[in-house]
């Protein structure tokens, strides 16, 4: 094998690592706005190469190269009801958005939630539980052409999580169920993408696109310790945080804002010692608070997302 062939083989192996499964197609742009990124850092050549490969494999289409002060997909906020159902609330928000059902009554939402609870049959939910639920709900609507992609740096169980209080009580039962669900996902060729380390720029580029959102798993301990939410009533005592090592919490990331007022709110609410001046902030729907929209600094969001216990799980959804 000559050097050129060796390099090509290495590149193919590298991309195979990043692109673990194709499954369904995400119909949206990632890179259309490359010429105007004043709200985010420019993508590196390696990031662009990876994204171009993913775009090619997933047949992502282009959209207009327009930027606004808020690059946000409008989604109706829904609160979680209990300490464990933040993931279900995020699925509800996304499903209602996909089905253009923004005017669902409280009774309809409660009925939908009961149905989801019956389906998952568990209270210690992992992202693969949400993927299985999301796929089933999409299957129920044959006219829905939306697509999704589950990205993570690990598909399966990390045995060390048994030492985290958040997982410990139900870990044995979870381990059996989660392994079975991942096996089923592989058999059904569901869209899973294993990424060793997704660049934060890539994530921001994705959710800046019109009609692309993400359900993201955060460490709520880090998020709440460093984010001042005293001005917003909590929907519940979100998760047991008696052990401050980790507390998982799902939110819907629906875009970024370059509006100075939004950035100021995000910066003032952040309790980090970070003195960085931001040119944008993240816009999320947090089912754990009553505020319709929450603005978060990039450093706080990334720290909460990359924490041990999250596996950097993301469910990208597009319509």
Short description:
By secondary structure, the chain is α+β, with helices and mostly antiparallel strands. It has helices at 3-18, 45-58, 86-98, 106-120, 127-140, 165-168, 171-187, 200-207, 220-226, 260-269, 298-305, and strands spanning 70-72, 147-152, 192-194, 212-219, 248-257, 281-285, 294-296, 314-318.
What does this structure look like?
There is one protein chain. The chain is α+β, with helices and mostly antiparallel strands and 319 residues long. It has eleven helices and eight strands. Strands 1, 2, 3, 4, 5, 6, 7 and 8 form an eight-stranded mixed sheet that branches. A hairpin with an 8-residue loop joins strand 6 (281-285) and strand 7 (294-296). The longest helix has 17 residues, at 171-187. The model is unreliable at 2-41, 62-66 and 230-242 (pLDDT under 50).
Present the secondary structure layout.
Blueprint: H1 3-18, H2 45-58, E1 70-72, H3 86-98, H4 106-120, H5 127-140, E2 147-152, H6 165-168, H7 171-187, E3 192-194, H8 200-207, E4 212-219, H9 220-226, E5 248-257, H10 260-269, E6 281-285, E7 294-296, H11 298-305, E8 314-318
Helix pairs in contact: 3-5, 9-11
């Amino acid at each position: 094998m000559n050097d050129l062939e060796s390099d090509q083989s290495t590149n193919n192996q590298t991309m195979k690592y990043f692109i673990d499964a194709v499954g369904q197609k995400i119909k949206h742009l990632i890179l259309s706005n490359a010429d105007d990124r004043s709200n985010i850092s420019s993508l590196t050549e390696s990031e662009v190469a990876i994204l171009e490969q993913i775009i090619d494999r997933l047949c992502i289409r282009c959209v207009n190269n327009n930027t606004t002060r808020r690059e946000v997909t409008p989604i109706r906020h829904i609160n979680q009801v209990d300490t464990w159902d933040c993931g279900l609330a995020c699925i509800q928000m996304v499903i209602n958005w996909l089905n253009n059902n923004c005017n669902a009554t409280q009774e309809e939402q409660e009925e939908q939630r009961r149905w989801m609870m019956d389906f998952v049959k568990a209270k210690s939910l992992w992202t693969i539980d949400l993927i299985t639920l999301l796929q089933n709900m999409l299957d129920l609507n044959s006219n829905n052409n939306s697509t999704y992609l589950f990205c993570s740096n690990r598909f399966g169980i990390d045995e060390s999580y048994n030492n985290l209080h958040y997982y410990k009580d139900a870990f044995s039962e979870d381990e059996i169920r989660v392994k079975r669900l991942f096996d089923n996902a592989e058999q059904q060729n569901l869209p899973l993408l294993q990424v060793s380390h997704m660049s934060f720029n890539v994530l921001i580029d994705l959710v800046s696109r019109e009609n692309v959102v993400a359900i993201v798993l955060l460490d709520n301990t880090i998020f709440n310790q460093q984010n001042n939410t005293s001005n917003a009533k909590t929907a519940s005592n979100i998760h047991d945080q008696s052990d401050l090592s980790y507390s998982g919490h799902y939110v819907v990331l629906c875009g970024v804002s370059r509006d100075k007022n939004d950035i100021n709110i995000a910066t003032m609410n952040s309790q980090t010692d970070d003195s960085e001046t931001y040119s944008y902030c993240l816009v999320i729907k947090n089912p754990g608070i009553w505020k319709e929209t929450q603005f978060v600094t990039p450093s706080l969001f990334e720290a909460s997302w990359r924490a041990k216990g999250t596996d950097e799980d993301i469910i990208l959804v597009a319509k």
